[in-house]
Amino acid sequence: QVQLVESGGGSVQTGGSLRLSCAASGYTTSKKCMGWFRQVPGKERERVARIDSDGSTTYADSVKGRFTISKDNAKNTLYLQMNSLKPEDTAMYYCAALWCGPGTPLYWGQGTQVTVSS
């Protein structure tokens, strides 16, 4: 059974930092594509960052230069380092195992809340 478990969310002030973790079990992150998404109530879930099987990364324009996605395959864990946080970054953050081509995510975590206050 595949499980993705996020942690590291919390409340910070504008300009602060958080590091989200996503521990995978029943699923090997090595040579896989994975991503971080976020969602606020009443809006669609949006992809924030993606890391491909070759380690290449892509980011939403809104987080470029502030967020960094990475994987530790030895620990089967995905990370999202978030710096210079803004109130508009407030959302529930989800990690996901992705197809390395087009298609909807394979698996989702349960989410971790990030709240940024001004």
Can you offer a commentary on this structure?
- This protein has no helices and eleven strands.
- With 118 residues, it is mainly beta.
- Strands 2, 4, 5, 6, 9, 10 and 11 form a seven-stranded mixed β-sheet that branches.
- Strand 5 and strand 6 (57-59) form a beta hairpin.
- The model has no long low-confidence stretch (mean pLDDT 96).
Instruction: Give a short account of the largest sheet.
Output: 7 strands, mixed
State the oligomer: single chain
Q: How much of the polypeptide forms β-strand, as a percent range?
A: over 45%
Rg calculated over all Cα atoms: 13 Å
Structural class: mainly beta
Q: Can you tell me the residue ranges where pLDDT is under 50 for at least 5 consecutive residues?
A: none
Itemize the secondary structure elements and their pairings:
Elements: E1 3-7, E2 10-13, E3 18-25, E4 33-39, E5 46-51, E6 57-59, E7 67-72, E8 77-82, E9 91-98, E10 107-108, E11 112-117
Parallel strand pairs: 2-11
Antiparallel strand pairs: 1-3, 3-8, 4-5, 4-9, 5-6, 7-8, 9-10, 9-11
Please describe the structure with a list of short key phrases separated by commas or semicolons.
single chain, 118 residues, 0% helix, mainly beta, four-stranded antiparallel β-sheet, 11 strands
Short note summarizing the structure:
This protein has strands at residues 3-7, 10-13, 18-25, 33-39, 46-51, 57-59, 67-72, 77-82, 91-98, 107-108, 112-117. By secondary structure, it is an all-beta fold.
